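Q: I have 305 residues here and want to know how they pack in 3D. Can you give me a structure?
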Amino acid sequence: MQHKIFGSFLVLIFSFFLSCESKSRKKQNERDQIFQDENTSRADYSYQKQNRDNLTIVTWNIQDLGRTKNEAELSEIVKILKSHDIVAIQEVVGKDPGGAQAIAKIVDGLNRTGSKWDYRISDRTQSPSANISERYAFLWKTSQVNLLSKPMLDKLLASKVNREPYIAKFEMKRNRKLFYVINYHSCKYYDHPEKEIVFFNDYPTRLKSDNIFIAGDFNLTEEHEVWSELYTQGFTSALRKSSTTFKKKCKKNNYLSRAIDNVYFSQNINLINSGKIDFVRNCENLKNGRLVSDHLPVFMEFRIY
């Protein structure tokens, strides 16, 4: 009798695990099909520069970029980025190798599109807790720019901000002009990111350069008074009054929420064009799009003379 009860128990346990596995596989299959529908799979994110001597830079907070992204979602990220030259990514998972592995897969995909790409990933930020610590990444076309030194997390700000910025120094191949890209993800808006951003006023002096991009997710808009000192120093924002994050639900055909992602650039950099890359495009695709990220990427075409 005991053997029969035990056997029945084992059958129940086995059936339970089979059911869970089946549900998990079904959910994964549904996610794999997300970007195979006609509206999305045929989406064209290509960007044509106004002049081949210009460069483009993209900044993107790719929500929880790590093991949660499947092959279809990573493939969509590749399609979105492939037309551009330099990419600054925030929110790369730092708790496990999944974040670095996702970046490597994206770069591998980009290298299959006809251009050679390289990349660097930061160490984990020295954040107050592991839950808010993350990594940054830089990706770039080697035909367009050279990386001049190893990108570094800004140690001087490590004790003053939740996630210290990641700084890279590049050289334009066409005219040998040097420039810095500061990759940054601020604290939450209710933690007052302006208390972190105020330290950016020192970057032109610290870096001894007028060719500086500050790119990222700032959790406040370009109209906030904290930017006034940088504006006085000649900085400009690539976007103005342009929402870049998604609502959870579309209301009255509007799925965009807050204007917090941007690129701020110094006075020697000439803005040719800028915008955001909308991979959602309509309310029906909002749920699917949010699996890629809850932020739109922001791009800027520029020239440095």
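Q: Anything worth noting?
A: Residues 22-29 have pLDDT under 50 and may be disordered. Residues 2-32 form the longest helix (31 residues).
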